[in-house]
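Q: Hi! First time asking for a complex rather than a single chain. Here are the components, and I think there are three in total. Is that enough to go on?
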Amino acid sequence: MTAVVADPEAEQTPAPLLSRALPVVMRWVGTLAVALVVFSVLLLLKGASPVTAYTGIWESTFLRSRSLQEIVVQMTPLVLGALAVAVPARAGLTNVGGEGQIIMGGVGACGAFLFVGETAAPGLLLVAMLVSAMVAGAVWAGIAAAMRLVAGVNEAISTLLLNFVALDVLLFLIYQPWRESPVGQPATVELVDAAKLPFVAATRINVGIVLALVLAVVVYLALSRTRWGYKISVAGGNAEAARRAGLNVRLLVLSALMIGGALAGIAGMIQFAGVEYKLRPSFGYQLGYTSFLACWLARHQPFPILVAAFVFAALSVSGDSLQLDAGVPAASIHVLTAFILIAVLGFTASRRKAAA
Amino acid sequence: MSVHQSTVRALAVACAALVVAGCTSATEAGSSGDGEPGKDTTTVGFIMVGPKDDFGYNQAVYEGSQAVEAAFPDLEVLTAENVPEDDTAATTMQQMIDEGAELIFATSYGHLDAALSVAEENPDVVVVQQGNTITDDIPENSGTYFGTVYEPMYLAGIAAGTATESDKLGYVYAFPIPQTIANINAFERGAQSVNPDVETITVSTSSWCDPGKQQAAAESLLDEGVDVLTQHQDCTSTVIQAAEKSGAMTVGYHADASEIAPEGWLTGAVWDWGPVYTDIVQTVVDGDFVGSAYNDNFRVGYKTGTNPFVLAPYGPGVSEETITAIETAQEWLGTEEGSPFAGPVLDQDGEVRVEEGGVPTYADNDVMDYFVQGVIGNLAQ
Amino acid sequence: MSLVVDVLSGGVSGGTSIMYAGVGETVSERAGVINLGTEGSMLVGALGAYAAGVETGNPWIGVLAGATAGGALALVHGYLVVRRGASQFASGLSLLFLALGLTSLFGAPYVGQPVVGFDTWEVPLLSDLPVLGPVLFQHDPLLYLGYLVVPLVWVVLFKTRVGLLGRTAGERADSLTVHGYSVHAIRIGAVTAGGVLAGMGGAHLATAYANAWFENMVAGRGFIAVALVIFATWSPWRVLGGAYLFGCAIALGPALQARAFEINQFLLDAVPFVLTLAVLTILGKRTLSASPAELKRVFENAPPSG
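A: Yes, that's all I need. Here is the structure of the assembled complex.
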């Protein structure tokens, strides 16, 4: 079965690569196929037809221009959120705090809007919101960095905990000081048109994707072509050796984590000013965790992150189709997401680590 | 097999889409409105904020959608559950439109923003919203509809005010939206009409359905000596069971739950959406939506005769006398001068909100933003 | 009843599900594996218990089913990280998504269905004590079982051979290999045991506390449990105290509202997390040195030994 599936892929692969790439491709396609088959069994158990489900997903998610646009809209914060994991990871740091940093990005952007929205010139307003979001995200990650540098607190723990504090900060703000009106559901006032991100051409896609793509390239270049990128990977590989080589490891840790936070902050700003236009209690829900997984799926590499983010966004959009066409709850799509992750995490990596 | 091939192709298309996304023209963007949005639609969509079998608000919506399906056998009825109250709702509605829906019911209070943006983008599609109020100009292809929930809650308040021994009633609610505020006030005023000393203590959970928070809220109210509990939550079983277990009485909401509270069940307000939904669908299919009562903030109550909210069966604790009192009050609510908020109405600070002899309209009650005297709790939070 | 008693009693009943999950996570982390999928184990535990309760009418069979479901999910995590070398954070989050999806797929028929749950059972004599009575002894049997779980886990961890092996797997895994033990088996066992306890926490939430099943009803309690273990520096006793503290913070909001105080719930909600961060900062390197050595390697992205 896998061989047939692999064929179209293989034909497109240049010949010299074929011998090297084929086993890898086979393994990936094989694991993905297993994920789809297991999900099919579950659908059958629920009395839904997998054929209906998959053709429904295929037609309504990939054959409709609007759905494709929606995927691009949804992948934007995931790309940035995943880059926010990838940069610290290069320095050997685990940033589980995307969730909180994205929220703080939205909060920062909203704060800037509420503060200067009336006075700033339109273009300047967006810049102010963007900068404020970056600062907010960077500061939020910076807290974790500072705790690590000053007190030796592990950043995986602190960024995870800071997610909950960020959520409470968001809820506090939208329930009281920033609330649109004391009656009604809690939300901030809607952004004025000048504070909304413009759309690309005649689509529903906000320009955030352009920024995300540019930043993916920038991150790639920064990590692979600059002295800083080299230094943080040395510090990430062996901090002791880096220190002996005269590198300022503390500064490198701080910069890697804060740049990560700033990237997540941008994700929050784009979600706020490009999609939601209001902060609501569910703002940014699960974007950070999904980004974290997207980054792992892409093995922390900037360009593969684009593909991983696309896949996750497509899965999320397919949830609607699953519900409308196959009659199973939309959240069931998480099962397929998880199977893909489990298959990839557990069965495409080299066995070296497991054997260690 | 084809499924797997599609997946591989999907990835390829996906990558291509990334590149061309910038150039994709909005081919599906609707043509300009033809003045008869939704006419002869073959498909109707319903989006719900919670699960369709929540024993509550969303189940009532789902049952209403089934009534539509029964009344219009040729119509395809799409339903989507657990649709959040943010921009995701717009995506789901758009998916329904892509599947052919030209009439969509966005049924949660917080779906209004998304409903209006979908209506704006699709002038040929009617999007009606349940329970909220459009305060700006109402677009040609949109509107809101609701019943006057607070009328049966007033009647239930009579049952609660008679039954309570501690003179303390408890109200678990989600958000201080005008609809909820009117319910709480009407409940208290119904109770006051038979028991002047009665108080209604309120606790908000900040969620339409979070059983953990509901339990904490119910426990706090019971600890305060409340002996009748009611609620404005989408899922209702947690609060009802908490009351029943501690020997307190229950006034239900959304659905008849006397089954899970055989001892303490008094009565409740229960939905029957079928007739309203069916009439909206008929109006839209006939091409008569524009300018109709539904192309507005449509409200229906005892005065107009077809309130989709009806009173649930009475429990063992309600006497014949009380039932008679409730029936008398219901007749009164249907008259010109009848209203849960017939003046004088004082707010928590003792300020007069409705003068002696004043009878507020349904529209007035839709923007209620204060608690009446006798309600314990803070609005500003 | 007084505010204090109300909040303490609410803290104990609301904190119990967190306590079960926290103690389970302690076992797992003591053996060197962090499990962000605890939230997922609680979710499948809640649904498993609820569904089995509905089908059989016996809440104890429900607990058994919830524990099994929670353990099974954790077993997958254990297999992935221990045998397949997957990232602990990524695997845990993946299993959370799996649990969200599975419970949504299979949970729908149980939404709004009445269950025969645990009733309040007042402990004779003890429940009449002032303050302590209502706070500790006017609850359900599954909550009382929680009182036994903490000492039991403590005894097993620190006074038995099994516990020693588990802790060694978390501290000096290579020494186990030398003595012919399978580090892999021990770790997977500990992770699974942790999932069993998290599943029981979910069971308490669904069939003893809220008496309902709803999609995503665990609502972050599993993540709180993971945070709590760090707050408690890997001690089951401090997990117990911490869980009730978190429970009280959650109960304080409605209790104050019912007394007409004006409050912002979210400042209260943030307190336990800010407190944890403050404690970590003050303890500083000492926290990390209190952590199992193998766990430290996980945090520092070093490959596991053994």
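A: The longest helix of chain A spans residues 15-45. Let me know if you'd like any chain examined more closely.
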